[in-house]
């Protein structure tokens, strides 16, 4: 009898919990693409309560449409509100501050949250987190490369030319120096992780040559760039963190990958050499240990796309404050 009573009580409590969950206000968050689901789920889960729950999804259930425009407008633009929000990459729209239609559309809608950094890839490449990414990928905790210094130096090199690009975009002269062209001048080539200085110096010379050309080409910019830099600083862009504002895919594929991939290769070889040395000539033991180590690894490309160790960054705190403002609006 006691067992039956306990079973009924358990079922009652489960039903009560399910009923309570069903009364939670569900807020649908539309995002741009598949990778964004994981990112924004991590952001929004912090704000789930007994009264509120989020469901993060692609912007359409009737077709395969994806992307920022779809998240904002695909039969949803007029519906964004209390129970429906959009979470998108800032791209360059944040730094435009309403100078373009797409910027006004993103910044003018109180039910749109954006990344402030260029994209989710920017956060995934957050410099202080990259050593941990290497550890997760290689299971080797030895620090052989200073990612923070590398990306700080990189940012300081590209800062001025990036500000020039922003100025041209704000002047609606998009085609004169588009971001795709900018990427050609801010790519790190032939990086040696043991001595990154030559690659960065080559980048500096490339950027300086282009800067000299732009100063001759656009003399009307004199006197306008200093106020622009001051404004951009208020938005979070500084000489030492410019990397967070360039195109996210370019940052990951052409700046960070050129460092993190060889670092992980070295760390894996170190660990494998250590296993071989410790096996003391016992081939079966060595083979088993190597197989165990290899099965425990994951490709760095997968690890970095699941990196969530960016929560201490200034820009992420801006995202959190944005979410909090939106929830205060929703009530």
Task: Write up what this structure looks like.
- By secondary structure, the protein is α/β, with parallel strands linked by helices.
- It is 58% helix and 6% strand.
- The chain is built from 15 helices and 4 strands.
- The protein has helices at residues 2-22, 34-44, 68-73, 93-96, 101-107, 120-124, 130-138, 147-170, 179-185, 197-217, 225-234, 248-278, 283-295, 300-304, 314-330; strands at residues 25-30, 52-57, 84-88, 112-114.
- A 4-stranded parallel sheet has the order 2-1-3-4.
- Helix 2 (34-44) links the parallel strand 1 and strand 2 (52-57).
- Helix 12 packs antiparallel against helix 13.
- It is flat and about 70 Å long.
- It starts with a helix and ends with a helix.
- Residues 1-13 have low confidence and may be disordered.
What can be said about this structure in brief?
By secondary structure, the chain is α/β, with parallel strands linked by helices. It contains 15 helices and 4 strands.
Q: What Rg is obtained from the alpha carbons, in whole angstroms?
A: 24 Å
Number of separate strands: 4
Can you give the mean pLDDT? 88
Main sheet strand line-up: 2-1-3-4
Distance between the termini: 47 Å
Q: SS-based structural class?
A: alpha/beta
N-to-C series of helices and strands? HEHEHEHHEHHHHHHHHHH
pLDDT < 50 runs, ≥5 residues: 1-13
Write the layout of secondary structure elements.
Blueprint: H1 2-22, E1 25-30, H2 34-44, E2 52-57, H3 68-73, E3 84-88, H4 93-96, H5 101-107, E4 112-114, H6 120-124, H7 130-138, H8 147-170, H9 179-185, H10 197-217, H11 225-234, H12 248-278, H13 283-295, H14 300-304, H15 314-330
Parallel strand pairs: 1-2, 1-3, 3-4
């Amino acid at each position: 009898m006691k067992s039956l009573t306990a079973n009924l009580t358990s079922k009652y409590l489960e039903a009560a919990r399910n009923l309570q969950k069903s009364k939670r206000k569900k807020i649908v968050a539309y995002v741009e693409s598949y990778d964004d689901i994981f990112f924004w789920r991590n952001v929004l889960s912090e704000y789930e309560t007994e009264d509120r729950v989020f469901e993060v999804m692609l912007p359409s259930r009737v077709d395969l449409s994806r992307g920022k425009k779809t998240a904002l407008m695909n039969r949803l633009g007029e519906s964004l509100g209390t129970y429906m929000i959009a979470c998108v990459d800032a791209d360059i729209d944040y730094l435009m501050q309403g100078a373009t239609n797409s910027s006004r559309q993103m910044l003018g809608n109180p039910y749109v949250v954006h990344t402030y950094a260029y994209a989710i890839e920017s956060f995934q490449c957050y410099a202080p987190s990259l050593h941990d990414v290497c550890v997760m990928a290689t299971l080797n905790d030895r620090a052989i490369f200073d990612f923070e210094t590398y990306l700080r130096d990189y940012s300081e090199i590209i800062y001025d030319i990036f500000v020039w690009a922003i100025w041209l975009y704000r002047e609606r002269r998009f085609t004169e120096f588009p971001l795709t062209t900018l990427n050609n001048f801010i790519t790190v080539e032939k990086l040696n992780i043991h001595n990154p200085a030559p690659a960065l110096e080559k980048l500096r010379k490339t950027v300086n040559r282009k800067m000299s050309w732009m100063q001759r080409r656009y003399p009307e910019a004199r006197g306008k760039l200093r106020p622009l830099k001051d404004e951009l600083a208020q938005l979070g862009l500084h000489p030492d963190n410019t990397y967070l504002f360039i195109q996210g895919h370019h940052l990951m594929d052409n700046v960070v990958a050129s460092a993190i991939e060889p670092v992980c290769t070295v760390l894996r070889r170190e660990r494998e050499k250590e296993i071989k040395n410790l096996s003391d000539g016992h081939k079966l033991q060595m083979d088993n240990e190597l197989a165990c180590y290899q099965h425990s690894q994951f490709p760095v490309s997968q690890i970095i796309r699941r990196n969530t160790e960016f929560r201490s960054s200034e820009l992420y705190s801006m995202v959190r404050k944005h979410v909090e403002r939106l929830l205060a609006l929703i009530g």
